[in-house]
Amino acid sequence: METALRGFVHKYGKNVDTDVIIPGKYCNIIDPVELGKHALEGLDPDYTAKMKAGDIIVADTNFGCGSSREVAPIAIKGSGTAAVIAKSFARIFYRNALNIGLPIFESPEAVDGIEAGDEIELDPATGVIKNLTKGTHFKAAEFPPFMRALIEAGGLVPYVERRLAEMA
Question: What digits encode the pLDDT tens for the residues 98-119?
Answer without folding.
Answer: 999 999 999 999 999 999 999 9
